[in-house]
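About this split. The held-out portion is used to measure sequence recovery: a designer receives only the structure tokens and must propose an amino acid at every position. Recovery is the fraction of positions where the proposal matches the reference. Here is one held-out target exactly as it appears in the evaluation file.
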């Protein structure tokens, strides 16, 4: 992963250069970087990987279904922590942790 500083003509870049490019540009906070996918995955996903993907999708759906009151509660807690840089990332982590704990409680832990 290489950091880059775009010239003034291009203030920001995102995504791939073209549909055939394996080099991508991205931003994380204030850091701009590039990357290259050298060896794309060819194997099918394992059951554990599919379970993690499903858990992540469930957490994402839970965040989208939050009420305004729950979002306000998360926003208050978010302001008192320093680990997460975005409210959405914080809410995703908390919902994922809740689902992971419920899964472990039911004895369905796949990790």
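Reference sequence for scoring:
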């Amino acid at each position: 992963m290489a950091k880059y500083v775009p010239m003034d003509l291009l203030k920001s870049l995102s995504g791939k250069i073209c549909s055939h490019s394996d080099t991508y540009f991205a931003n994380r906070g204030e850091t701009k970087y590039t990357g290259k996918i050298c060896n794309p995955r060819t194997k099918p996903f394992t059951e554990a990987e599919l379970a993690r993907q499903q858990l992540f999708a469930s957490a994402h759906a839970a965040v989208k279904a939050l009420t305004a009151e729950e979002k306000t509660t998360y926003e208050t807690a978010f302001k008192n922590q320093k680990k997460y840089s975005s409210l959405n990332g914080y809410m995703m982590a908390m919902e994922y942790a809740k689902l992971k704990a419920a899964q472990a409680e039911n004895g369905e832990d796949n990790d």
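Annotator remark: The first strand starts at residue 2 and ends at 3.
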